[in-house]
Design goal:
By secondary structure, the chain is mostly beta strands. The protein contains 4 helices and 21 strands. Strands 1, 2, 3, 4, 6, 7, 9, 10, 13, 15 and 16 form an 11-stranded parallel sheet that branches. The protein has a 3-stranded parallel sheet with strand order 5-8-11, with no helix packed on it.
Length: 327
Amino acid sequence: SAEDLAAVRSLLRTDGSVNYIIQTKDITMTDAVNNTWLPYCGGTGQTYDVVLNYDGQNHVIDGFKPAYDDGDASAGHWYAQSLFGVVFGTVKNLGVTNVEIKAGQSGRAGAICGYLGTGNGTAAVLATSPIQTIENVFVTGKVVGGANNYTGGLFGTTGTEVVVTNCFVNVEMSSEAGDKNGAFAGRLNNPATITNCYVAGTVSGTSNLVTGANTGKVTYDGFVVFNTGSEKTGIVEANKEGVVTMANTAASKEDGIAEVQDWKAFSATKVIKGYPILKSFEAYGEDPAQSGIFDAAVEEGSDAPAVYYNLQGVQVNNPENGIYIVR
């Protein structure tokens, strides 16, 4: 239950040994737990010496909406807007759905963690978990970044080498100020390997499509960007290795979906919010629309000029013989 999830915090060892936690059912968060939520590591008055191996066993945590706290870092509010706070170790096989996060003025925020890496961990912790890993994890919902922090769908920032594999983020990302925010991750501050992942949803304000910045070398091996609403990726090309597929236009979206469906860990038949879901989470997926057009939008107003599309959803300027869709 949500109460069980919170109670685990008091059981964690802080001597450098690994805390192995498995989730045995879906969890729906409650207002009472959300309003008093503290992450497992690095919250107010908490140690930074927790090594975590969390296995969601292909279950979800739904409705994580931690109470907004605009406290500054000196009061210990760095990672309050996340499930685990600081992650030394591994989080895997977990869906976090319908999340709502609003970062404080000097925090690090993300549905999984604010900080993926060393933080202020002791030598014993670093020796146990030198590389941090997120695998087979997805996030949906809303994320609002702050002015002086790093905020992302998965995590806020990194402190050591990280590996992110078979993950996706589909969020409404916005920022009230500042540009240190990205729909996938706030900042990749260290070497990172990102394999078979995608980011979707919408981005507005000063946020970036992917990250607030990648100041460390990032190797992409299968990464697709479906976001709309911004041209800013946040990817520093000088620090990037590998290909990032930009599929955030109507013409390229279908090809991007096909690319993701070809990845071994993703379903070829089920979607969530219009995009492929992980195979191990197919029970939470939906059948895709019968047409090839995803995420239809309604535009108000009766004076708009007619726009024509072929049956593949591609805009046609001068329709001739055949069947077309007119908006």
